[in-house]
Specification:
The chain is built from 8 helices and no strands. The protein is mainly α and about 180 residues long.
Length: about 180
């Protein structure tokens, strides 16, 4: 019997185009993103010579970066091998925009474009959602996932707006949940 909350989560994520039922399906999701983004990069590459750098950057943001950022908070805690696939897509897009060569280092290119690496983009989106939840700018269901730390006695740190770190077992997906990642 599937709990009601889990069933609602599965239906919601299928509507969004992401299924988080198992690790294999997350791997499949990452592979689908890479496949779709690589196809788009190839098509943009065909018309790149007709575009200025700013126009190419806009097109890459619309078609590539949006695919990398869509629901990327569910990718928190994935193995580095899976995130490296997405990073290679971002590196290829950056090289396309700047017309840099494959053998050149990518870090200065990403820095000049002001693009965060994929794993930092995921952390940034989680931190942004946490900030919005703390300041009442997010939906109630997200704000309810965050618990404020209330010490049992009066401490100087009582007014610091700390979050409660929830404990979870190591052999489950709980350590990748929003309530754990945000704390």
């Amino acid at each position: 019997m599937v709990p009601v909350f889990r069933l609602r989560l599965l239906l919601l994520t299928r509507d969004l185009g992401v299924t988080v039922d198992s690790k294999l399906q997350l791997d499949k999701h990452v592979n689908n993103i890479c496949k779709s983004a690589s196809f788009t990069i190839n098509n943009i590459g065909r018309i790149r010579r007709y575009l200025s750098q700013s126009d190419c950057e806009k097109i890459v943001h619309v078609f590539i970066t949006s695919k990398l950022d869509y629901c990327n908070t569910i990718l928190y805690g994935l193995p580095k091998s899976q995130l490296d696939k997405l990073q290679r897509v971002q590196n290829t897009a950056a090289r396309l925009v700047t017309r840099s060569k494959k053998h050149e280092h990518i870090t200065p290119v990403l820095r000049n474009l002001h693009w965060l690496p994929v794993h930092k983009r995921i952390s940034f989106n989680i931190l942004l959602m946490t900030f919005k939840a703390l300041n009442g700018q997010s939906p109630v269901y997200i704000s309810e996932l965050i618990s404020h730390y209330q010490p049992t006695r009066a401490l100087r740190s009582s007014n610091c707006n700390y979050l409660l770190v929830t404990k979870c077992s190591t052999n489950s997906y709980e350590d990748r949940s929003f309530s754990v990642a945000s704390a």
